[in-house]
Amino acid sequence: MKISTKGRLATTTALVTIALIAAMILWANKEVEDANNKRRQTTQLTRGLTEVRLVTFEYILHRHERARQQEQEVSSRLQRLIADDTLVEPAQREILEDLRERIATTHRLVEELVPNPETRSDEDKESIRRFEAQLSSQILMLQQDSVANAFRLTDFSTERINAAQRRVETVILFGLGLIALTTVGGAWLINRNVLAPIHRLEQATREVAAGNWHYKVDVGSKDEIGDLSRNFDSMTHSLRMSFAQIERSNQLAALNQEIEAFSYSVSHDLRGPLRSMDGFSLALLEDYGDKLDDEAKDSLQRIRAASQRMGRLIDELLGLSRVTRAELNLKVVNLSQIAREIADSLDQQQPPRAVKWDIEEGITVHADSALIQIAMQNLMENAWKFTGKTEQPRVHIGSLQADGKKECFVADNGVGFDMAYADRLFGAFQRLHHESEFSGTGIGLAIVQRIFRRHEGAIRAQAKPGLARHFSLA
Amino acid sequence: MSESNKVILLVEDNPDDVTLTLRAFKRSHVMNTIAVARDGIEALDFLFARGAYASRAKDPLPTVVILDLKLPKLDGLGVLRAIRADERTPLQPVVILTSSKEEEDLISGYSLGANSYVRKPVDFTEFLEAVKVLGIYWLMMNESPPERKRL
Predict the structure, then answer these.
(1) What is the CATH number of domain A327-472?
(2) CB of B70 less than 8 A from some CB of A
């Protein structure tokens, strides 16, 4: 559960509790007020009953007409008062019924009393007196019971008020307890779900700052802090990754340095013995030429030729490795201009040959100027070389759009090659012609391919009449 | 000092290369004394008349030092640095003659004050040509810097 959800839940619980307490207090207040009303009414009832008892007593003693009228008056008032069913709780309805009956009976009995017994005969007087004595005692007893009942009703109301007040107290206590519980629970949750994970995160930042990038925090929860810790972990993960990458590239740089050292000794140490082979062969030829027969001289010449060829191979291998190691410095390069300069220098090297150069104007590529120059030099020298036996040599340098990419090409009408061997064309020391036909070490196109690879371009070759070579540079 | 008194110091550890270089000088009709040092320290001993070369204290400095880069003990660039740093030889003509044509070697060679940088070709005919040109240039055409007083 999210922390924000938990927070909302805690707030809602507290608010509901407070609302509940308020409602209980309001309800209890109403209850007390209601009970108070009823107690007032029952008190009135009690008072009325006491009053009716007094006037009845007075009437029994003196038979004043005024007392009888008062009794009637109070009785009818009592009957009205008691007619209201809401006066008591349903549980006390029985007592109320009883009271009604008693009041009505009492009243009836009072009316039965002879208004003026003194006016009767003595015989009558005696019987009336006995009868009235009985009646009066019955009335007084009834009234006594009524008063007692009325008191009981009052007691019930008082009891109700007390009960309501006790309930309010209970609710307030319970509510306060609930609020306290919520507060303690909230504090505990905050400590467990917020403060403790934050402490762990804080410790993790210190660990990571100290360089321990393998430190994992994941607090496992699904809340915001859980997200934070997971993000933190993924951050250290990517830090670790990029550090590993840097380490790898450092290793690569070290490896490059080793290659460089190797190239250096290749260029220095392998050429030494070759020089000796060539030099001492020549020394033999010069100093002892007159003592050697033609075969011996030919052998020495072959040793010299082989040493020199090996020297060239080493140089070209070094050229290849230099192309691989060179730092790329990309900018917009005018390919047409480079091609034009190379064509001019080739023309000057071998003036008797007349190659017709067809160079498209304004070809530009985004590339390393020095490397692209080496590539073009190799491609154009190849074109020059392989058109050596063609009647009207032509070399076309141009560009076209293929699959949405710009493709530049060098095409010639030279001897071409067999497409079956096209995949061997770009391997180092791979040759598709005999050296006796066309000279070369077979490394030129390997260099060209490396240069294009380093530019994330590609080279491909096509052989068809009049179009020998193709390369593309994205 | 007559031309034949001029001394060339060849600093080269490979005996084959020494023989071939000497042969090339001979064939180019360079008759001057060619002293050979087999490592960098020996080269400095010769120049500064130390150790085995202490007796050279009064002799003039070589007209030109032909210096290989890859040498035992102290490499060619170290020798060049020491030559340029010493108050007796700051102007000493030094030609680097080496197999390497690494851009770095070229840059460091010239930065440290090499007067020339020649690459040893594998083809001895070309090598011969290079040594001949070197001999003619440094022994005949080039005017040596004025000799500093030695300590």
Answers:
(1) 3.30.565.10
(2) yes
